[in-house]
Amino acid sequence: MHTVPQEMEAVKEAPTSHNVQVYVRIRPINSKEQSQAGGRTCLEQGEAPGAVTILTRPEPKTFSYDHVAGDSSTQEDVFQNVGKPISDTCVAGYNGTIFA
Before 58, cis peptide (omega within 30)? Predict the structure, then answer.
């Protein structure tokens, strides 16, 4: 059975009447980044739903999006919550676009 991370549940419940929605996935750091930065990242999922905080100096900057998938999300999670619904509506005769 396919389980969906909690931060992605809102995508399934989102109304389909929106024309444009912005979905952001925070990818996990790779081994090169792990060794160079000691496991530290330059951004994190914000406390508010749909928020991403970039850890800049002197002050961090927070940006808001319609949906944010954390670094524990997988490509399959993103497809099931973004790609599949848009693909299904296209098959039903509606226009749909995904920018990646």
Answer: yes
